[in-house]
Amino acid sequence: MIRRPPRSTPKPSSAASDVYKRQMQNLNELFAARGLKPTPPIRATSLVATSASDVWNAINKPGNLVNVHPFCESNPVDHWPGPSGRDHVHYYSGVHYQRDVLEWIDGSGYDLIVGPPSGKIAVANWRIDPRGPAACDFSIEVTSYVRSDGDPVKLEAYNTNVIQTIGSYLDSVVKGVTHFAETGSPVNKNQFGAHQVYSPATEQH
User: Fold this and answer.
1) How far apart are the C-alpha atoms of 45 and 184, rounded to whole Å?
2) Residue 160 is inside which H or E element, if any?
3) First-residue to last-residue Cα distance in the chain
4) Strand partners, 132
5) Segment 1-44, tens digit of pLDDT
């Protein structure tokens, strides 16, 4: 299910929250210096019929994306898990993104800066919200950063082909995490539908 904020997710400590706010302020300044501005955040949430600890185990292991992400072909790791974590997402389409941990909230989730290694373009918040001993909500919220100047035609094309498809992208990923946490079976390529940018449909011959 796709929905917009507000969020109801576990809150980090006050000190950690202050550090995160400073990090985000610094990031916004860096993005602004590159001529990028934030888009409204987009969020996808799934009710998972298993414990929060099971979901945490599904998303905190090195290379976990090959189990939960239906558009990810490989997930090489530089350093994972932890506050200085970094890994890579090689999509079936050939696109390569790098994920760097901004904040690691043990047992509850993490915040990432994501995009091509040469220039990140988004911040992603992965969160687990317990509902009881055998159920929880899992969500991913993404704020993308887009050019505030440039060719209007190219900006509109980017908005149509990338920004407007983030909702369906996130929906597939949270479904993948849910599937793996509940069944222990890795997702298949495009299990919940293809994505035109990251994993297009395979042509049938």
Assistant:
1) 19
2) helix 152-161
3) 33
4) 135
5) 434 333 444 444 565 566 667 777 777 778 888 888 888 899 99
